[in-house]
Amino acid sequence: MDTKRAWVTLLTRSSYLPGVITLAHSLSIHKSAYPLIVLVTPSLPEKSLQALELESKCNSLLVIHPIELLLPPNGQRSASVASRFEDTWTKLRAFELTSYDACAFLDADLTVYKNMDEVFDTHLPGEDWIAANHACVCNLDSDVWAPNNWRMKNCAYTPLQHPDSLTKATPVPSSAAPPDTYALLNSGFFLFHPSPELWQSMHHRFQTTPDLFTYQFPDQDFLAHFFRGKWMPMSWKYNALKTMENWHRNIWRDEEVMGLHYIVDKPWEKRVASDGVGGHLGRDGKTHGWWWNVWEDWVANRRDNPELVGILEQLVAKPLSQDEDKKQCQENKEKGLPVPIPGHDN
Q1: Most exposed: 241, 257, 260, 274, by fewest CB within 10 Å?
Q2: If residue 260 lies in a helix (H) or strand (E), which one and from where to where?
Q3: Gyration radius (Cα) of the chain, Å
């Protein structure tokens, strides 16, 4: 019997619609054999839902799946480091997709640059395990919200070297438990086998654990605790955090990136000027440029659907005129962008 597999993502607000559209398009470009199930909540504005419906007629991989928001019981609030994480609890509803044998969750700000279907062939030690990527805990820019043990020497990517890192990941020690850094995962990608039993167990933990309010990265910390001792680390290439281009030169290779995770600021929020500066600290111009290439390819393929393109163009930064480009380059220079990376040769 054929195995039923699917990619899954979540969309709760319009600001991430460009990411979902380009994620679906990138899966199509690279000829994935599996659909992208887009979990949508009632919080998504009608215009954005309309855009998804129009896109689903153009891209057969995109499948819309309405769900309800998943919120902590009794109005609990987590110690989340950013307001954009408030909706991420709802990612856990991906485990409700029990009609599928295997699912791989991809965040809406992840774009695929090579066919990644091979992840579904990963053998997990048990049906109640997941596969994921280590969290990068280098914190080279000394963000104040980061725990004290978030240092490059404690990061699971630091001991690795190319090319072994393409097929191997740092093992999770059997005794490790959060907040041990080697026990932390990044939930931008995770592979799992849905089942009623797994979802029931997870939902019960969600409803009863007193730890929810302590989690800085809500769903991510929950998964690391729930699957303690039951998650398998995967190669960095499936969930390549854009910061790793600079922070982990020991393993990063442009040509090996399969899934690029645009953490923090999103590429569609601002165009990359001719100086190549892009991103929060100005270091992400190249990888943001990759996203804009996918966007332009999508637009070129949807010219016969002006209504759809019109909705999306309202959500992305407009192209820069020659004068605007010159102004942005000057502003970048005055701000000292790109900001040098502490402890690295620049």
Answers
A1: 274
A2: strand 259-261
A3: 20
